[in-house]
Amino acid sequence: MRTFVRPDGRCFVSLEADEHELPPGELYAIVDETDADPYERLGFVRQRREYTYVIPVAAIAAELPPDLGMVSAAAADLDRLRKLDDLLRQDLHPGWRWKPDDFQDETFQAAFDPRTYLIAAADEEYVALVRVWRNPGGWRLGFVGVRRDWRRRGIARALVAEVFGVLLADGVGEVTAEIDDENIASRALFEGLGARPVGAQIELCRHDGASARVLVRPSGPDDAEAIAVVQVRSSQAGFAGIFPAEARRFYESRGWRLDGLEKDVESFGIPVTEVRYRIGLR
Ligand SMILES: CC(C)(COP(=O)(O)OP(=O)(O)OC[C@H]1O[C@@H](n2cnc3c(N)ncnc32)[C@H](O)[C@@H]1OP(=O)(O)O)[C@@H](O)C(=O)NCCC(=O)NCCS
Predict the structure, then answer these.
(1) How far is the CA of 167 from the centre of ligand 1 (A)?
(2) Which among 7, 52, 122, 237 has the fewest CB atoms less than 10 Å away?
(3) Both 62 and 168 in a single domain?
(4) Residue 62: which domain range?
């Protein structure tokens, strides 16, 4: 089994053949819909579906609003870009927070192309980004995101249009992207560009009743701060597994601060004590 703790603190596993035992705590997996059986046999439950789309590369008539400019990630201030990325991911993966070194490695990976990773900026302020990776198996649209206060002004479409112009000149015919079934805005954006679904993946979660459950949500409409509610102990035997301590270490090593709130609640029928962490996102 391979495990990977993502920057939002969630632990993802990938099972090898004939795996029967799992570590304690809350575990996640993303697998092709047709490969879910071994996970479900081990108690994983389906909780989200995303579709793989093929998007035809075509010329798109769209421009950024006049108060915005475009900059390549290769020329960007990496610190500001990382903070924008953390902020944009809150809609999809609450609590996501990159370590600077990891973000640098992720950004300048082998599939990076400075022409297809672009940021929309209002002067020094970064407001949106698109990144399309040059993967060995074909071009993949990894992400497009726009800050909430800048949405519905044609920014996402204009960023995709710019990248598609580059790809069209290179003779690239299509890109792939994964889009959550429930992500109405991005499905509308891509379906409007002629995208068609060609496969589906599901996210599964396994909760063994003895784990720390971490709930993270933006604290206000401007996403200036995120809150993480971390379950730290329980009167129930078995709760003091490895995960509560790991969860606390995860937040504390990344600069989250306890805000003093502590309360007793029930989680999946188990009495637990929650504490609350906060972190600024700008
Ligand atoms: C999806 C997202 C990038 C759209 O950004 P945007 O700049 O607001 O989008 P645009 O203004 O360029 O809209 C282009 C088209 O997308 C569709 N669209 C965008 N937002 C929509 C919404 N909230 N509801 C329905 N359709 C929407 C529309 O078809 C729109 O065309 P129209 O304005 O002519 O109707 C933005 O909502 C976002 O950042 N979401 C969170 C991150 C995310 O989910 N990214 C996708 C993962 S790859």
Answers:
(1) 21
(2) 237
(3) yes
(4) 58-172
Ligand 1 centroid distance, CA of 151 (Å): 7
Beta carbons within 8 Å of 58's beta carbon, 6+ residues apart: 164, 168, 193, 194
Separation of 88 CA from ligand 1 center, angstroms?
Answer: 13
Domain boundary among 120, 142, 172: 172
Interval 157-185 mean pLDDT: 94
Greatest alpha-carbon pair distance for the chain in Å reads 63
> What are the DSSP E strand ranges found in 34-81?
45-56, 69-72
Per cent of the chain over pLDDT 70 is: 81
Q: What is the CATH number of the domain that holds 95?
A: 3.40.630.30
User: Is the residue at 125 inside a domain?
Assistant: yes
Q: 154-163, 217-226, 243-252: which has the minimum mean pLDDT?
A: 217-226
Pocket test for ligand 1, best of 53, 67, 184, 189 (most atoms within 8 A of CB): 189
* 178 alpha carbon – ligand 1 mean position (Å): 15
Looking at the CA of residue 145, tell me the nearest atom of ligand 1: 39
What's the chain's average pLDDT? Answer: 84
